[in-house]
Amino acid sequence: MEKRLIFDSSSIINFSMNGLTDLFVKLKNIFNGKFIMTSEVKYETIDRPLQIKKFELAALKIKKLLDDGIFEPPSKECSQLEIKNETAKILNYANNSLTARGEFIHLIDRGEASCIAMDIMCRKAGIKSVIVIDERTTRMLGEKPENLRKLLESKLHTSVEMKHDFEFMKDITFIRSSELVYIAWRKNLIELKGGDVLDALLYATKFKGNSISRQEIEEIKRIGRAS
Amino acid sequence: MIEKEHVLNVLKEVKKAVENNDLIKLKDMSNQTLHSASIYQDADNIAIAVIIYVLSKILERTKYRNYPNWPSFLSAFMHHIDKAVEYLEKDNLPLFEKELKLIRKDVNHLSGGFKKDIQDVFQKASINKASRIYEHGISIEKTSKLLGISIFELAEYAGGTGVSEVDIGISIPVKTRIKNALEMFD
């Protein structure tokens, strides 16, 4: 079965800020499938940061990964127009689902929605796919939308109502940069020696925006020691 | 969309807090505006949250008071807030919004180190408020666009906060997620 890892900007940016972009190359070498970057994610990780001096170098390094074919734009799975249309539908649905004080809360943006669109289209085409995403909101929409509603309610100090369900996202599988560094560590792709390398990698992802708790990190380390 | 009475009340309280140099109150007022900013996601609520936070920061750092431009800068800042209140009371939203924008524009008229320092405070305030909106449950990409900052900046800042330590955010067990990742690489 064909496979795809669909990358959101949050995870690509995480690896980039941790100086781990080379790890994408190593992971791709052992992956029997494609690493997908939608045009919306390309905009967030390459096109836009190329215009900001502070992030220009990071953007160039990510661009090289795309130029070298480590990341690929969607092609076989669907056309650009199909992704754009599906992305627009998802944005409209997701951003018109939860209400507070009579207003719909706009939860997600184009890059995140494009990953969901891509995943749905991959599965329709019989391709096994997973979304790699570090940011919390999109992941919660798929895995536990009710928890997201509760979170919003507790933070906004007002009642939040869910107008429709997120059944269409229930089959989406999400992983984070932490799971990717775990794979890299377990498959001996990390050349660092001495010290607790897995611990260092996991916390590095956390401190660059990966939504992972300390408790989850300790759990991954336990799994790692037992493997 | 702004809630007129709430915003008027906040801005009047801000004025009092500045007069009393009450930094805690200012930060509290800034946080109060975040709920509206997260729901309505409009430029006005976001600008108010950032402006109040900036005020708390520039008053906290007393070294700024040594700059020759300090008295006129603070006076103009507060004048714009007074005018914003006045226009909002008259339901003149375009002029209300203009006054909010002028606060930030005034920074361009400053010079040297003071200008750079205040620009830096505005940028950091935007990142701080973005992080708080992300914490409220709005996605990282959506939030970065609302505040006009990059995901790089927001991810780094949010990574240093307690956003990911909230139990409710753990939507599936770690063991399952690891298994899913391993399956893709088998």
Architecture overview:
- With about 230 residues, chain A is an alpha/beta fold.
- Chain A folds into 2 domains: about 5-175, 5'-nuclease (Rossmann fold), CATH 3.40.50.1010; about 180-225, no CATH class.
- In chain A, about 55% of the residues lie in helices and about 10% in strands.
- Chain A contains 11 helices and 8 strands.
- Chain A has helices at about 10-15, 20-30, 40-45, 55-65, 80-95, 110-125, 135-145, 145-155, 175-185, 195-205, 215-225; strands at about 5, 35, 70, 100, 105, 130, 160, 175.
- In chain A, the strands form 2 sheets. Chain A has a 5-stranded parallel sheet with strand order 3-2-1-6-8.
- In chain A, α7 packs across α8 (about 145-155) and α9 packs antiparallel against α10 (about 195-205).
- Chain A is globular.
- The mean pLDDT of chain A is about 95.
- Chain B is an all-alpha fold and about 190 residues long.
- Chain B has one domain (about 5-185).
- Chain B is built from 9 helices and no strands.
- Chain B has helices at about 5-20, 25-40, 45-60, 70-90, 95-105, 110-135, 140-145, 150-160, 175-185.
- The model of chain B has no long low-confidence stretch (mean pLDDT about 95).
- Chains A and B meet through α1, α4, α6, α7 and α8 of A and α2, α7, α8 and α9 of B.
Secondary-structure map with pairings?
The complex is a heterodimer of chains A (227) and B (186).
Chain A: E1 3-7, H1 9-17, H2 21-29, E2 34-36, H3 39-47, H4 53-67, E3 71-72, H5 80-94, E4 98-100, E5 103-104, H6 110-124, E6 128-132, H7 136-143, H8 145-156, E7 160-162, E8 174-175, H9 177-186, H10 197-207, H11 214-226
Chain B: H1 4-19, H2 23-40, H3 43-60, H4 70-89, H5 93-105, H6 112-135, H7 140-147, H8 151-159, H9 174-185
